[in-house]
Every structure is written in structure tokens, then in C-alpha cells.
Predict the 3D structure of the following.
Amino acid sequence: MSTTAVFTVDGMSCGHCERTVSAGLAALPGVTDVVADAPTGRVTVASAQPLDEGVVRSAVGGAGFTLVGRV
């Protein structure tokens, strides 16, 4: 089973920000793909299982950004 979730992240403003957030989320167990889009502030995460929002919040915060929430 695969699932996709879209999150809003505050503070992304460039390609470097996109790569930093993507790398932090890609390191989470079960994550198979991450696409971050700085202009919209959205991050799409594909994973083998649904992700706990607290785990996503922690990974985004560890990358230096703020998770606003799930879209």
C-alpha cells in the first residue's frame, strides 16, 4: 500500500530550501518520494504507510523550517 500526503511548510524560499526540506523528509522510514515547491510552500510526500504528522513536523523543524499542516 502506498499513500501520498501534501503538507504546507513555512519558510521555503528557494531551491536550496526545497532540497533541505526534501532531504529531511526523505530520511524518514517508509518515505519513497518527496517533492517540495518553494513558491507554493507545499511538500508532497509519498510513503509506504501514512505518516504521523508529529514525525513530519519534527523532520521539517530539524531542517530549519516550520510545518504549517496537512493540506
Observations:
- The chain has a mean pLDDT of 97.
- Helices lie at 15-26, 53-62.
